[in-house]
Each structure stands twice: as C-alpha cells, then as structure tokens.
Design brief:
It is a single chain. By secondary structure, this protein is α+β, with helices and mostly antiparallel strands. It is 52% helix and 15% strand. The protein has 8 helices and 10 strands. The strands form 3 sheets. A 4-stranded antiparallel β-sheet has the order 3-4-5-6. A 4-stranded antiparallel β-sheet has the order 7-8-9-10. Strands 1-2 form a two-stranded antiparallel ribbon. The model has no long low-confidence stretch (mean pLDDT 85). The structure holds zinc ion (2 copies).
Length: 254
C-alpha cells in the first residue's frame, strides 16, 4: 500500500504516533491515538510576511493541479459542444439548454468521482500536504459542545482554506454571540476584523459577476468562457494575498 509509507505523524510530542485516519467531531480534527486536536493548515505568520512574488509562487505550487483539472474539464466541454453544434438540425434555443445540461452533467460526474475517491476518509485526505500544528483541545471537552460546530461552520467561510482558531491560545473551542467570538479555553473575546469581511464580500461579488458572463457566453456561443479559469486564478490569487496581509481578529478584554 502506497499510503502506509507516508502516514502523518501526530505533532503532540508525548504521542508522536503515525496515523492514517482521524477523528472528526464538531468541525475539529483529532489524533486517533491521544485524542488531542490537530490544527490543520493554520494561518502561519510566515504567510503574512511574504512578498507578492513569494506568495504567488507558493499559491501556484499548491493550487496548480486544481486549475489544470478545471481547464481540462472546460476543454472537454468545448469539444463536446463543437461536436453538437455541427448537427445543424437542432434549433438555436435548444442548443443553449443542451450546453447547460452538458455542463451540469460533466460537473456532476467530476463531483461523484472526487467524492468516491475521498469519501472513505475525507477528513484525513484533507490533511495531506498541509502544515499541521498541535492543537490545545481534547476530544472529551468538545464531545458534547454542539455550539462549536455552528461557530466553526461560519468561520470556515471567512477563513478560506485556513483553520480558524483563538488568536490568543489557538483553541478551536469557540462560541459565537452575534458578532463576538468567545474562546472556551482562555475566555478571551474577539471580533473578526471588518477589513477581512470586506475582502470576502468583494471576492464573492467578483465571482458572481464572472459567473454571469460565463452563463451569457454560453448562450452567445463565444469562447469567452475559455478565459474563465485564468481569470478565476488571478482573482483567487490576489484576494488570497490581500486576505493574508490583513489582520484577522480584533482581540477584546478577556
Ligand atoms: Zn496523538
Ligand atoms: Zn483562547
């Protein structure tokens, strides 16, 4: 088995055992041996110090596969559309719907493929090639606290691929009351920096506008959609860079 060769090792020094599956509970990942939490891909201070060049290099290194796959899917899609367009008996109105449903079918196929591939141990696969730090939480303390799950689900959207945690003690046992976050471990309170929220909103708006043009280019039959992936790449790169440069939290009194 190829996987057994590169098992992940628990970062907790008194455990340090290799594992090939994890415990996932209320949005937190735990080592299956010592049952202590693992901070998967936390926001590292190195990232904040990076120049745009360094950041872009790192971004390409970690993300190129995703964009390459998307480009291949788009190429296959356009090839199929070309074939269909050559049957001139189909009227123009239905061509659009055929294109749209084809797109949906391809996406569904790809989705099922990746789900099948990762479903058995989805949360373990998400650990691969990401920095893992030792967390401060234990499974027993998280077990019955459903509020953590709700809070982390909300923070996940704001933190992209990075693991949200308390800026003071790195615990993930967070509760949310309106816009304030309460750490259950060190009892600090903090709010998300409004700048960070702005970046996420701008990013979302740009993605929606892009999607709008893609759907339109489908009906026009133009090849504008070929630009979609490269533009998406640039949008994601620049917004992630500004996201990294922005302070995430505003700490308040404990
Ligand atoms: Zn462990
Ligand atoms: Zn804390």
């Amino acid at each position: 088995m190829k996987h057994s060769l590169n098992k992940i090792i628990c970062p907790h020094s008194n455990c340090a055992k290799p594992f090939d599956k994890v415990i996932y509970h209320h949005g937190i990942v735990f080592c299956p041996h010592c049952q202590k939490s693992l901070l998967i891909n936390p926001f590292l201070p190195e990232l904040e110090k990076m120049t745009f060049r360094q950041f872009a290099r790192r971004f390409i290194k970690t993300q190129w596969k995703l964009y390459a796959d998307a480009m291949i899917i788009f190429a296959i899609f356009i090839a199929i559309v070309e074939v269909i367009a050559n049957f001139d008996k189909i009227n123009l109105g239905s061509v659009f719907w055929i294109k749209l449903s084809l797109m949906a079918l391809i996406l569904l196929g790809v989705g099922i493929y990746f789900m099948e591939k990762n479903l058995q141990n989805y949360h373990y696969y998400k650990l691969k090639n990401k920095p893992i730090l030792k967390g401060v939480d234990t499974y027993n303390l998280v077990k019955d606290d459903f509020e953590i799950s709700v809070t982390l689900e909300d923070l996940k959207v704001k933190f992209n691929t990075f693991a949200p945690c308390c800026p003071n003690c790195h615990s993930q046992r967070l509760h949310q009351k309106i816009d304030k976050f309460h750490c259950q471990n060190c009892h600090h309170q903090f709010i998300i920096s409004p700048k960070l929220n702005n970046i996420n909103t701008h990013h979302l708006v740009i993605i929606y506008v892009l999607m709008f043009f893609i759907i339109r280019s489908l009906s026009d039959g133009s090849y504008l959609m070929l630009l979609f992936i490269p533009i998406l790449f640039l949008v994601n790169l620049s917004s992630q860079y500004y996201w990294c440069k922005t302070p995430k939290w505003k700490l308040q009194s404990p």
